[in-house]
Design brief:
With 425 residues, the protein is an all-alpha fold. It has one domain: Growth Hormone, Chain: A, CATH 1.20.1250. Helices cover 75% and strands 0% of the residues. Helix 3 packs antiparallel against helix 17, helix 11 runs parallel beside helix 13 and helix 11 packs across helix 16.
Length: 425
Amino acid sequence: MFGGKQLSLSSAFNDSIFYGWRIVLVLSLTRFVASGVGINARSLLLLPLEKDLGATRAEISLMFTVESLVIAATAPLGGWLMDRYGARRIMVAGILVSTGGFFLLAIAQSLWQVIVIISLPLGVAYNWSILNAGAPILNNWFNLKKAQALALLSVFHGAGAALLPLMALAIASLGWRWAVAFGGVAFIVAALPSMFFTRSTPEEMGLTPDGIPTPTERSGPESASGGMTLGEAMRTSFFWVMGVGTACMLFANLSIIAHFVAILVSKGSTESMGATLLSAQLVLSVPFVIIGGWATDRIGGAKVLVGVTVGVTIGIAILLWATDIWSYSIATIFLASGGAVWPVLWAGLGYVYGRAHYNVIRLSIYSILILGMATGPYFAGLSFDQTGDYSSWLQTLLFVCGAGIVTLTIAAWAESSAGGKPQRV
């Protein structure tokens, strides 16, 4: 319909639907399964690894810290590779390496092996292929509905948490090693459509962003495949305040997700209840993601992230004083707002910085985010080992979130000055 009708790849789907939305669909399927058996399932491994390997909670939490540091160090390289060779090629390679990581983790015999596997095949490769390849692909395919497309991707990522109770059941009945191995099988099966049907840019199929045959005259870096270079982006205040402010929120959010089950157990709840509420938190992020994507396409990303951080702060405050299932549930609802961060952030950066150097700019900011998040889970575990509960750590996170709210408020002003408000037609 838009130049791709004669291509056999396009004929695999109904030609009446813009091919960009088909890419959203296959990437979302991969995200759904990867979320449930991969990154979000790691918090379920905290207590089993503690028992199996005889390590302290702080030592087990070190795997999150080392993983974050390695990802931060390699993120700009990943962005450069995606800009140089295309996001799809990097995604396919990362999926294959990540699949091997599941099976390597299932046979790991020591803590250092777990840390290496979590950091490399299930860290760097998983991050590049699952968490980061989709954003530049959709940034290329969409201009007018960039945040909404990214939001749908995150919706399925959050919905994948519905698989967490199944993973918890598998861990309880089969052991964590078999559960991880079966997770690897599910992962590669779900990733196959993304590997075969995704293309890095619409131009590869003779199409244009949003499926508009004749590009509409628009202003701003997002109007074409141009945009700022990394050096130009780093000279803007928005680059730094957006990165630092979001890092504060993610520092708190990742710390809570990694220890959520353990936090509830320390308050007298059960592991199964903790797993259920963690699953609910990630699933409940869906409406926040949809609303956040809609709002970002209209007012820009920084203003939306201020609201997201306020929601997470309220959730942490409630969790600090929670004593029963009802207060745990209310905290879970507010904490779910943190799930909106990624599509809002990535779309906001796309609107400000354009397409040409989007990957290296985005993943350079991602390095700031990872460095901000890296020590959160470790110090949460260390705090527990020293005090026997998580209260002092939750209080610390309230101050961190407060700093994030202030910094993101400054970012919202800088975003307006940089012309980051989406241009409608």
